[in-house]
Amino acid sequence: MALHLPPEAYLWFKAFHIIGVVVWFAGLFYLVRLFIYHVEADDLAPEAQAVLKPQYGLMEKRLANIITTPGMVVALTMAIGLLMVNPSWLQQGWMHMKLALVALLLAYHLFCYRLMGQLDRGVCTWSSGKLRALNEAPTLLLLVIVMLAVFKAQFPTSSATWLVVALVVFMALAIQLYARKRRRDREQQTLFSEGGT
Ligand code: HEM
User: From the CA of 158, how far away is ligand 1's center (Å)?
Assistant: First the structure.
């Protein structure tokens, strides 16, 4: 049964649902970027590691607990409000698909907490290259969830849609390859300068 609230309640829920989603994703993207810096600090001199690693750990905890998780809570609480005003969305296939993808996003969120704990204890086995690849997962989820939220049952399957998806995947791959090249160049430069001394 639909909840009887003032007509503008739905719009308030939707506005804060979108704000929550933006904050949640900003947090998720930056959190894994911090993990990358944290892991790469292993290559630095012990004195630099002693300063940087606790600093990254602190930044990660603050980002996760003050930005990312509250963003998630706002997005999901407002989503419940939207569904209470209009429960018929729950009968629709696009919403089932959206909920399944949101479940994956929640699993990703929890996995980030697990990685944060491992980094804190110094037992994380993820390389920075693997973390960079992991950081693309929420990009794909964001793309498909927003498309489902906007297009709903009219989710487009035309060639133009596939072109947009291919373009996003291509850009993500290009960013990965460029980052890998820069890493290799840096490693070679370090080897070269160590060899020269
Ligand atoms: C439990 C999780 C979620 C539920 C139940 C949910 C539910 C809803 C509902 C009912 C609407 C209103 C649709 C309309 O009025 O047209 C909506 C809008 C929206 N949702 Fe979600 N949502 C969830 C999570 C997310 C996530 C994780 C994202 C982003 C990745 C997202 C992005 C959006 C966007 C962009 C809109 C605005 C669409 C528009 O107005 O055209 N939602 N959501």
Answer: 23
